Amino acid sequence: MSNVRAAESGRRAHKGSKSAGIPLSAGMILVTLGVVYGDIGTSPMYTLKAIMSDNGGLTTMGDDTVIGALSLLIWTITLITTVKYVLVAMKADNHNEGGIFALYSLVKRCAKWLIVPAMIGGAALLADGILTPAVTVTTAIEGLRTIGPVYSVIGDNQQIVIVITIVILCILFGMQRAGTSTIGRLFGPVMTVWFLYLGITGLLNVGGNLNVFRALNPVRGLTFLFDHRINAAGLMVLGNVFLCTTGAEALYSDMGHVGKANIYATWPFVKACLILNYLGQGAWILANRNVASLATVADLNPFFQMIPANLRALAVILSTFAAIIASQALITGSYSIVSEAIRLDLMPHMKINYPSQTRGQIYIPLVNNIMWVACIFVVLFFQRSSHMEAAYGLAITVTMLMTTLLLYTYLSQIRHKHGAAILFVVTFGLIEAMFFFSSLTKFMHGGYFTVLMATAIFFVMYIWRRGTAIERTQTVYLPVNKYIDQLQQLSHDDNYPYIADNLVFLTNDSSPDKLDRDILYSILDKRPKRAKAYYFLNVQVTNDPFTHEYIVNDFGTNFVFKIQLRLGFKVNQRVNTYLYQIVADLMAHHQLAPQNHKYSIYRDHGNVGDFRFCLIRKVLTPESDISGGNANVINLKYAIRHVCGSPARWYGLENSSLIFEYVPLFGKTKRQHRLTRVTEPSGTGSMKPVSAASVVEEDEGDIFSDKMVKEHSEVIEATEHEVVGGDTASFRPLVIDEDEDEDGSDSTEEGEE
After folding, report:
1. Where are its TM segments located (predicted)?
2. Which tens digit of pLDDT belongs to each residue from 269-324?
């Protein structure tokens, strides 16, 4: 049935590439330090300062208060970042990709409702990814005022700070197209120096008071948390303590960019430097709590005060660079989250670039531009970092709670470790719930903004997923062999002019012998399209960087071809070039007759004819019998799709001959009033309502698609009686690599619907 041709002989072992991931190397360790730890690495700049401020200032920080606060910080980093994310979550990777959507893809078979926490967590993390660059860069620029020469230029004029912040954000987002590796190699040395600075300055101050090591005892932290005599803030102090681990979720999301081996190798060093710095700040507080001159300093920050005055300018400059770099962890993490959401059909297809030879390192131009504009809006809206900080961290607590729920499912249902799963969900669910409720105090002081952004992102996901479920109730795949005779007659029917020698349709299904009803409707019904040969092209992106191969089913003809084009993720997807090669190859193997040119500007006329590409867009017609709510969802989905571009750009067809054709979203038609033929009263007629069907792909489904099961069954039955070749059985996507998941979702880039 099928013939296999490869433009490049020899296919790499897919399984090996997936299991290996990004290997441990000195270069990637540097990239990891520059990309992954920016957010969590800058937390010592403000975490202990916030705790001290909410407890009444420097003079109120007694031994038990300082030791207790340090204990909470140390054990928060240990439990959430080290245990939950580094030791547990990073084991739950989807083809070496991390993040909440990668985790959901592993557990979605376990329960249909799990899509909801995945969507909530992903939306919250993306919202925080928008806020973090604005907060960190603004904070850094405002911190430069502590340096005399800089203050003489900036002064107290906040507008200058805003302009400088926007310029830096523009540079930062403009650099993203260079790729994670390039950025990591630029930022890596700076962050390495930064962590060494944290560890050394902390260690030098710890030497003055070794009693701070008592903070390693978790009992001291629990005592501080519940004893109001030493903790004036009560449980609400957790909102500030949580700042020490806000980068943990980004660490998990960035795993695909740098590889888990490099995170395992670097995290012990990073954690040691963080803890030493916190202990050093605590030792400085205990040594200086009775200094009257310090008690009057406004906005006192032990992070900078523990540095000798003659070195403080260097510390502020280094901190500024580190704060700017902190944005990188959230930006790259956002790319990973969106990429996984696209695979799960929670977001529309977008153009994804792979700047390096590692598939995990990606750049999504549209996401980059949206975050760019949103970050600038945040800076202009809040003006000052103190206003932004009120919104900081609330969304991440939501994401962490959702991740805990999914990890519980993973441990209990996938790994079958039921006891460990219960212990995990009770421990981390309780801890993160306390962090969440303490962070709610920030809601009216700026946290509402993060919630609004997360809600907007969740709304996009809901519309896209719900709209897809509705569309699938109206989509049916028909067997191509039932229509071969009609296609052959049309190709020889002189009543219709040739539209092209080669007519190409892009399709998002990977079955070898079926087609979406919309394509056949376009060729045979909407406007019969006569061509010498018809091609139905599906593009898949493999996990290997340089795959060039295709599979073709000719259905025993020399004019109908179903082609699956398999391209490596580093390969430029200019399908017109590859299709020309495929056609020439088919002619060389006598599967396609030569298409000699009669006219040409070239001396040597080619034997491959012209091409036209037909791109189909579904539209909702007024006659469709779809409820008002579902119709609104479909229209909103199509509006979102319009913003995200078209296959013409994704597949390099801008300069090709294109046909954009709009076909109705088939569905049961509304009952129409009968017309009466007044000149012939005895004859009445009516148009028989045309029903169409949908086939939901054989996947596990979710709560959105489950609601459409009844409609699906009804329309399947109608279609089997009304269309030629009524065999509307759903298909499993064609799997070529035996190690792929059953649904083949790891390597499929869907085309336009």
Report:
1. 21-46, 66-87, 113-137, 157-174, 186-210, 230-252, 264-287, 313-342, 362-384, 390-408, 420-440, 446-464
2. 999 999 999 999 999 999 888 877 777 776 678 888 888 877 878 888 888 888 77
Q: What share of the chain is helix, strand, coil (3-state, %, to 5)?
A: 60, 10, 30
Helix, strand or coil for residue 181?
helix
Q: In what order do the strands lie in the sheet with 498-506?
A: 2-6, 548-553, 560-568, 530-542, 498-506, 611-619, 658-664
- Lowest mean pLDDT segment, chosen from 83-97, 331-345, 705-719: 705-719
In a domain, 188, yes or no: yes
- pLDDT higher than threshold 50 for residue 201: yes
Residue 18 lies in a domain: no
Per-residue model confidence as pLDDT tens digits over 623-648:
666 666 777 887 888 888 777 767 66
What mean pLDDT value characterizes the chain?
77
Cα 459 to Cα 452, 551, 639, distances in angstroms:
10, 38, 13
> In the predicted model, what is the mean pLDDT of residues 34-60?
83
User: Domain range spanning residue 537?
Assistant: 477-664
The verdict on residue 698 lying in a domain is no
Domain end point (choices 467, 485, 500): 467
- Any idea what the Cα angle at residue 108 is, between residues 105 and 111, rounded to 5°? 165
For helices 312-343 and 115-143, give the axis angle rounded to 10 degrees: 160
User: Which of 295, 272, 353, 371 lies closest to 44 in space, CA to CA?
Assistant: 272
Shared domain for 245 and 382, answered yes or no, is yes
Taking the complete model, does pTM exceed 0.70, yes or no? yes
403 Cβ contact partners less than 8 Å away, ≥ 6 residues apart? 89, 100, 103, 121, 249, 252
Cα(493)–Cα(342) distance, integer angstroms: 42
Locate 729 and state its tokens: 């059985």
**CA distance linking residue 546 with residue 566, whole number of Å:** 10
Q: Which of 338-347, 535-544, 653-662, 680-689 has the lowest mean pLDDT?
A: 680-689
Residue 271 sits in the same domain as residue 228: yes
Would the pLDDT of 717 be above 70? no
Domain end, chosen from 412, 446, 467, is at 467
Instruction: Give the separation between CA 117 and CA 702, rounded to whole angstroms.
Output: 12
Q: How many helices (H) and strands (E) does the chain have?
A: 30, 11
pLDDT digits (tens, 9 = 90+) for 462-479: 888 888 887 777 777 888
Q: Are residues 42 and 181 in the same domain?
A: yes
Q: Is residue 93 within 8 Å of 261, Cβ to Cβ?
A: no
Query: Looking at residue 398, which CATH number applies to its domain?
Result: 1.20.1740.10
Same domain flag for 492 and 366: no
Number of structural domains (the chain) is: 2
Q: Is residue 385 part of a domain?
A: yes
Contact 326, 38 (CB under 8 A): yes
On whether both 142 and 277 belong to a single domain, the answer is yes
How far apart are the C-alpha atoms of 6 and 9, rounded to whole Å?
6
Asked if 431 and 401 touch (Cβ cutoff 8 Å), the reply is no
Q: How far is CA 261 from CA 473, 649, 657, in A?
A: 44, 36, 47
CA distance 308 to 50: 22
Q: What is the dihedral of CA 256, 258, 264, 269, to 10 degrees?
A: -140
Residue 384 CA to residue 378 CA, distance in Å, equals: 10
- 747 CB-near residues (< 8 Å, 6+ apart): 540, 541, 542, 543, 737, 740
Tokens at residue 278, please?
């916190």
In the structure encoding, which two tokens stand for residue 180, read together? 């994670």
The answer to whether residues 366 and 319 belong to one domain is yes
Q: Which of 335-349, 381-395, 708-722 has the highest mean pLDDT?
A: 335-349
Lowest-pLDDT range, 142-156, 605-619, 736-750?
Answer: 736-750
Q: Which residue has the tokens 């309780």?
A: 430
Are 382 and 531 contained in the same domain? no
